[in-house]
Amino acid sequence: MGYIADLRKKVGSCPLIMVGACVILVDKHNRILLQLRQDNNCWGLPGGSMDLGESLEEVASRELLEETGLIASELIMFNVYSGKEFYYKYPHGDEVYNVVTAYICRNYEGELSEDENEVAELKFFSLNELPEDINPPDIPIVKDFLKKCR
Fold this sequence. Notes:
Elements: H1 2-11, E1 16-25, E2 32-37, E3 43-44, E4 47-49, H2 56-68, E5 70-81, E6 87-89, E7 95-110, E8 119-125, H3 139-149
Parallel strand pairs: 1-7
Antiparallel strand pairs: 1-4, 2-3, 2-8, 5-7, 6-7
């Protein structure tokens, strides 16, 4: 999170507009991959914020690799999300209004490997057996995916 970390040094914890991407990774059994986040102990989609000069597709690919060890062979744009329901206050106090582009990835390679700084656990979940404690900014994205892609 280079750009945001540098910006936070200048502006503190006040609300920022944070642009980023996430990946709804679907395996051959139609399960989605979620990560148990270290920061809030909630299950969420792999993803993160954009660094200067990156495209949204590059953000999605980079974050997927960093957080899961998997390499996306193909990313398909699912939707763009923003607005009041994408406000989030991190446990350490930083506030953001997220603008998130969600991608679906069904073709990938590699072996699952957690980023020990951000991820406590990686797990595939059946669409009918998702955990209740989903990361707040990911809830509308997951609900939209379930509605459109079941």
